[in-house]
Design brief:
The protein is built from three helices and 17 strands. The chain is mainly beta. The radius of gyration is 19 Å and the shape is globular. It starts with 5 loop residues before the first helix and ends with a strand.
Length: 302
């Protein structure tokens, strides 16, 4: 059984359920383009369906992130803690808990993200544990190696997994697979995740607006591959971010099977007089089998 990391970057498209007014899904043209002051930090992204909160230390580094559903049990959601006590590394401890159809599922990751000399994520190593109804389901050791091009754009991530068996890990025979990232004109246009297989199972195809992106919020609105990494993407730990604001994401699940499942998500943004994003809409378009629109408020800190 492979570690289920896909849920982390798809979280805001999976657990939200209610609808908002579709008239809000039209982008407002920013005055002169977004020019958010560098000192700005996103404190929260809030909707009726999902609340994302972020806290920082006195060096402006992310320390905690929470992704919860209003009205749900206090334990439900994704909770991430970031630690900087080890020079040249970032410690991540994150967990998610869900309860559905009479079954409780708890998953946790204890991970160390190693940085290269230029400050980019080099590789991570960690332990993953999952339980269902308090009974162990899976314990695994994993490693992910990150590779970049000359423009500091992430081009691939190689995954290794070793499952616990007979009291230890078979380190001689890792389960391996890739994620690939394709860039054009400074924007990520395609992300392929083999998800434990030899060919892509999940494919994201992205198109963009002409307006320049604000890195402080864009990776939080749409995190490339792992929701827990979103705040670190915003800090440049995973290299360059897309230059423009994402407009549409076409997501294909089970791409190696027929028929596959296709969802399209569009994004629309609203700005204040200084070009800072204050609200945005996330709309599931016809063609995905459903039409839903979610309105978010962006809370900024200094």
């Amino acid at each position: 059984m492979k570690i289920a990391r896909f849920l982390l970057y798809a979280l805001n498209g999976v657990i939200i359920t209610s609808c908002a007014d579709s008239d809000n899904a039209t982008s407002q043209e920013p005055p002169g383009g977004p020019e958010t002051p560098a000192a700005g930090r996103v404190n929260a992204l809030v909707s009726d369906d999902l609340c994302q909160k972020f806290n920082y230390d006195d060096k402006r580094r992310i320390t905690t992130a929470e992704f919860t559903v209003p009205g749900a049990d206090d334990n439900e959601g994704l909770f991430v803690h970031y630690d900087y006590s080890d020079d040249g590394a970032i410690g991540l401890r994150y967990s998610d808990y869900s309860y559905e159809d009479g079954h409780s599922r708890f998953r946790k990751w204890d991970e160390t993200l190693r940085l290269s000399a230029n400050g980019l994520a080099d590789y991570c190593e960690g332990i993953f544990e999952a339980t269902v109804n308090s009974y162990p389901e899976l314990t695994a050791k994993y490693k992910i190696e990150f590779h970049y091009d000359a423009d500091k754009q992430l081009v691939d991530a190689k995954h290794y997994q070793w499952t616990m068996a007979y009291g230890g890990y078979d380190m001689e025979h890792p389960w391996t697979w890739y994620e690939w990232f394709v860039w054009e004109n400074g924007n990520l246009v395609r992300h392929e995740d083999c998800d434990g297989s030899s060919k892509p199972k999940h494919i994201n195809e992205l198109t963009y607006l002409e307006w320049p992106a604000d890195d402080a919020v864009s990776p939080l609105i749409y995190s490339t591959f792992n929701r827990a990494y979103g705040p670190l993407q915003a800090a440049g730990i995973f290299g360059a971010n897309s230059k423009n604001l994402v407009k549409i994401v076409r997501h294909t699940s089970n791409a190696d099977l027929s028929p596959s499942i296709i969802n399209k998500i569009s994004f629309a943004y609203h700005f204040d007089d200084n070009g800072r994003i204050t609200n945005y809409n996330e709309t599931y378009l016809p063609g995905s089998g459903q039409y839903k629109n979610y309105a978010y408020r962006v809370d900024w800190g200094d």
